[in-house]
Fold this protein.
Amino acid sequence: MRGAKVWFAILVGCLIGGLVVLGGCGGGGVRRPTIALEATPAPGIQSYPGGIALWVIRVTLTPADAGPVTVTAGSMKGVACQVTPSQLNGSGTVEVLARPDSTVAAQTVNVVVRAELQGGVVALGNGATQLSLPLQVERYRDQLADAAKEKFQPFVTYLAANHPEFGIDENTAPEGWVSAPNILVVMWYSFLSEESEVLVQWHVMIPPYDWTHVYVRARGAPECVWAGEVSTTGAPVTEVALPDVFPRFEAPFIDL
């Protein structure tokens, strides 16, 4: 009789242990790693053949020590994509650059960003996720480069003297593109160097209403780190309050 009680106790212990293990796996004791992707601040962007679309993507890994994350981007047609950096050791920020060609002019295409943990766990929802970013490609060509460089020049001189940490000076040769094609009255032009992304906005009006605004973002971070203005042509550069987010033109009328 005593032996039967001992065996019964062992059996009950095994059953309880099994339930605890199962409950832990299904109820939160042991959680599979997850990845979240967020485009900041706007997912939909306009560009044109020969131009660039740039998204800043927040990558959030839970738990933070789950392992390295690889981030890739691509499109089904007509868009060359680049991710910088392409690997993170945990949560962080990446940039996605998309360069549409003439085959997708006057179309809206999707750029798909995919993040997955290294180590073989690649099923969506189980260590991997993806984000679809609409890109509206206009029939357009850059006619603003010279005007943008002229508007930006006073800021180059000011930043080189007062904020050398941004890496912007007379020797910087950034890549430039119209970041809001087919928009009138206020022009949007972007410059990208190894250290910074710069947005130049200017009001196409006569003095004293021909202001210029400039915003600077350090590569690898989503937020604006410097903002300034020239109130009218010939006025000095003045630093202004930082916006809540780095300005990025959101494409209107995207129809997927």
